[in-house]
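It is worth pausing here to work through a concrete case rather than discussing structure prediction in the abstract. The textbook approach is simple: state the sequence, then state the predicted structure, then interpret. We follow exactly that order.
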Amino acid sequence: MKAGGPGSCVTGTVARPAVLDMVIVSSGERRHRIRSAVRQLSFLRGTSSEDADAMLAAREAACAHRSTNAPDGTELAAELGRRPRLESVQTAGFSPQTQRLWNFDRTTELELVEELLFQLAEFVGVKSLPQACVKALVERVASCYQENTYHCFTHACDVTISAFVLLTKYGGAEYLCPIDSITLVVSALMHDVGHPGNTNAFEKQTQSEIVRAYGEDGTYERMHLDVAKRILSSADCNIFKAAGFSEEEQLWALDLLEYVVLGTDLSIHFNVMHEWQAMFARTTAVEGGNRDGKGEVAQASCLQEGDLNEEMRKALVRMMMKASDLGCCAKPWPVARHWGERLVEESRRHEQDESARGMTTSTAAIPTGSVTHTSQHQLNFHLKIVNPIFAAVVDVLPPFQIGMAQALHNTENWKRMAEGEEPVAVPDL
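Step two, the predicted structure:
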C-alpha cells in the first residue's frame, strides 16, 4: 500500500498544543511516578490511605500467588517487585479528576499506556503479559496516529485512561471476563488509529481513496478497525496471544474489537442506544436536566454478577467504550473545555481546507464562528449524545454518578457560554 493510502501510518504536521508541562527529572523517576499514579486511578475517591494500602497489598499478594504457581509468571512477579506504593496521582502531572491537563512528551505517554495495560492485567487476573509485546504494541499504535489537534495519540491516551478507570475504580470489570476487559482497553487505545483529521462526510464527498477502500458507511471506523487488526496480527504485537488467552478467546477478542470500534460511529448512535434500552431494563434517556448525579439514580446496578450472556457482555463493553471516548466530558470544567475547543479547532482547520478546495463544508454541525456558536454545539452534543451515554453507564455502574454529576455541571457551563455568560467554577466532585 502506498504511503498516505488508507490505513497507512503517515504522521501529520499539525503541532500539538502546549498545555501544562511536566518537569521530568529522570526517566526512572518518571516511570516511578507513572506507576504510582496509575495505581491510584483504580481506587474510588474517599478510600482512606489505610484501606487503599490494604487493597493494594491484597491485590499484589493475590497476583504474586498466581505468578508463583504459574510456569510463565516469572516476568510478572519481577514486575510486581518494582512497583511502588500509592502516591498522589498529581505527582505524575495528570489526573482525570483534577483540574490539570498534561503535555507529556511521547515517551511518557507511551510508558503511561504500557503501565495501564500491565496493571489492568494484574487487576483482572491475567497471569502473564510480556513486557516486550506490550511495548511493541503501544509503540506501533502510536506511530500510526497522526498529529491532529484532537484525533491524535494524546486523545487515545485520554480515552485509554477513561476505560481503565471505568473497569477498575467504577467496577466494570466485575461483570466481564478478563478477555473483555483487556479488549476494551486495547480498543480504546486503537479506536481512532490512522485518523486523518477529516470526517466521514468529507471522504464521501470527495470519493477519496479511503472511502473507495472502506465504503461510505462508517468509513473511518472501518479503516481504524483494519489498521488495528493488521497491527494485532503481527507476531510481536499480538497481545491476546501473548497474554495466554485460548484460541477461542482470541477470536472472541477480535470480534469484540470490531463490534466496539464500529460502535463509535456517531451515525449509528441512536440505534446503539435503542439496542441498549431493549437489552437492559432500567436504562433511562437523559437530556441533561433530569439527573443531578447525586442520588436520583438507583444505588444498585441493574446487573447481577454472572448473569450476562455473550450479547450482553458485548453491549456493555461497547457502551463503556462510547463513554470512554467521551470521558473528557466527565472531567472538571477546565479539562472538558480544553478538549471541546481542541475538537472545534480541528474542525475549523478542516473547514478551511474544504473552503480552499471550493467544497461545501462537511462540518456544518460544528459551528466554528464564535464562542457562542461553539458553546451551543457543545451544549447540544452533551444533551443529545454525552449525557444519555453516561446515564446508561450509571445504571450498570452506580459509582460513575461522580462522572455523571461532573458532566451535568459541564453541560450547564456550556449553556451559560452559549447564552453569553461566563462559566462558573465547578467543584472537583
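Step three, interpretation. The two ends are 49 Å apart (CA to CA). The chain has one domain: 27-82+104-418.
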